[in-house]
Design a protein that fits this description.
binds iron/sulfur cluster, 466 residues, 20% strand, 5-stranded mixed barrel, single chain, alpha/beta
Length: 466
């Protein structure tokens, strides 16, 4: 067994702590304890929360959406941008009211922020009512940390350890049809603006047999849209030395019997290969949709970002993907106002957006992260200029998204219905294979099923059909 996988002995030890902590809580409360989990950030954090809920469930916890009703509140935080950190601190600040009303409630702070020294110090000093803080590497040790808090009455902090893989815990997922399935953790890329390798450790891939078994189980439980997760799924398997890469894994999941589809995120353009696109094209259950973050249209800025690809390589990938999958939907991330970005660099980004015509873009104004290389770079662009560039980018992309979506009108698509519509004129919503949001005039009976939906109208953000 690879040494990144937490050993069976260590997992058994945690089960003993889970038993002890669960009993202590039951004795104190005279009933099963209730937990409320609050998640910030990316899908990986969502998946981590599902794993935590699995641990809590084994300890006898029930779940509530209302923090004021909970005996244990967990904030799973995100460190990717300053804004996300401010939100997390804001939420922890508000939780002081809950602690005042119910001093026995336990408050936990975990996730990527907890793995940062500065955030950890702030929690220690400014939020004395936070009972337990633990980093991403300590997630599986939560039963031990909770037991320590309950048995000693002291605050507990655990940010130790290296990146690990935790197997053998059944995540508590949302009800079908959509499921996250982690295939790997961490990142080796050290893009100069990104904190992820510092807080999530180096790349480590799960055993393919475990992944395939979990996917089979999800399908048998009625999940119909499975998203394979990793910070850089295209380097899946590099650390296994087992002769399996991400395309091979996709094929194996595609071979599972059942009525489902599979998608993945996130891809790094330097590792996305023609083999990947050929595999996507030939596997009927693999969605013809990819999120391929470009970040900038300027080779100079990409160099400063340490992205290890150029725009020619990127556009060649897009051309190839579209040649083998003409229907593919393509989304991307762009950072505006990276240190040293000039108007000329920014125009190159606009040119790229106009050339590639992404279905949609996730756009961000650069956010300085301590410990990263970019944090040391000179950043002379004023904030209002960055905002102007951001607005210009959005205007261009919104026009493109609307034009692309308008081409869907009058056509029929297979849509997986997965929830109630937030639009007052529609009843349910779902996603196409290309992950387009569709609001539908339908009925609750459609929930969790694939339906052929005729698109009647389109906007920048969504399609509308029946
Ligand atoms: S690939 Fe780059 S941006 Fe993505 S998680 Fe790794 S370091 Fe961060």
């Amino acid at each position: 067994m690879r040494d990144t996988v937490v050993s069976a002995e260590k997992m058994a030890e945690q089960r003993e702590y889970a038993d002890l902590a669960g009993r202590l809580l039951y004795e104190r409360l005279g009933r099963n304890p209730k937990a409320c989990t609050v998640t910030f950030g990316c899908q990986q954090n969502e998946a981590d929360t599902e794993l935590l809920r699995g641990i809590l469930s084994e300890m006898g916890f029930l779940f509530t959406e209302k923090a004021q009703d909970a005996d244990l509140i967990i904030f799973n935080t995100c460190a990717i941008r300053e804004h996300a950190e401010m939100r997390a601190f804001g939420n922890v600040g508000q939780a002081s009211h809950i602690k005042r009303a119910n001093p026995d409630a336990l408050l936990c702070f975990c996730g990527c922020m907890a793995q940062e020294q500065s955030a950890c110090a702030k929690i220690k000093n400014s939020f004395p009512y936070v009972d337990i803080l633990f980093g991403t590497h300590a997630l599986y040790r939560f039963p031990q940390l909770l037991y320590k808090r309950l048995s000693t009455g002291k605050r507990v902090f655990d940010t130790d350890g290296e990146g690990v893989i935790v197997e053998g815990i059944e995540p508590v997922r949302k009800a079908p049809p959509n499921a996250w399935l982690s295939i790997m953790f961490g990142c080796n890329n050290f893009c100069s603006y990104c904190i992820v390798p510092f807080v999530r450790g180096r790349e480590r891939s799960r055993d393919p047999e475990r992944i395939v078994d979990e996917a089979k189980k999800l399908v048998s439980e009625g999940y119909k849209d499975i998203t394979l997760l990793g910070q850089n799924v295209n380097s899946y398997g590099n650390d296994l030395g087992a002769g399996i890469d991400f395309s091979d894994l996709l094929k194996r999941i595609n071979d599972i019997e059942g009525d489902f589809r599979v998608r993945f995120m996130t891809s790094h353009p330097k590792d996305a290969s023609k083999k990947l696109f050929d595999t996507m094209a030939s596997c009927e259950k693999v969605c013809k949709s990819i999120h391929l973050p470009v970040q900038s249209g300027s080779d100079r800025i990409l160099g400063l970002m340490n992205r290890k690809y150029g725009i020619e390589q990127y556009t060649e990938l897009v051309r190839y993907a579209r040649s083998v999958m003409p229907e593919i939907t393509l989304t991307s991330d762009v950072i505006v106002g990276f240190p040293g970005e000039t108007e000329e660099d920014f125009i190159k980004t606009l040119d790229l957006i106009n050339e590639v015509r992404f279905d949609s873009l996730f756009t961000f104004i650069y956010s300085k992260r301590e410990r990263t290389k970019a944090a040391l770079m000179e950043d002379l662009t004023p904030a209002d200029e960055k905002q102007r560039r951001f607005d210009r980018l959005l205007e261009v992309q919104n026009r493109i998204s609307r034009e692309i979506n308008e081409n869907y009108v009058g056509k029929t698509f297979k849509v997986l219905i997965d929830g109630e519509s937030e639009d007052e004129n529609y009843t349910v919503k779902g996603r196409t294979e290309g992950f387009k949001l569709v609001h539908i005039k339908g009925s609750g009976e459609m929930m969790g099923k694939y339906k052929n939906i005729e698109i009647e109208r389109a906007s920048t953000w969504a399609l509308f059909g029946r």
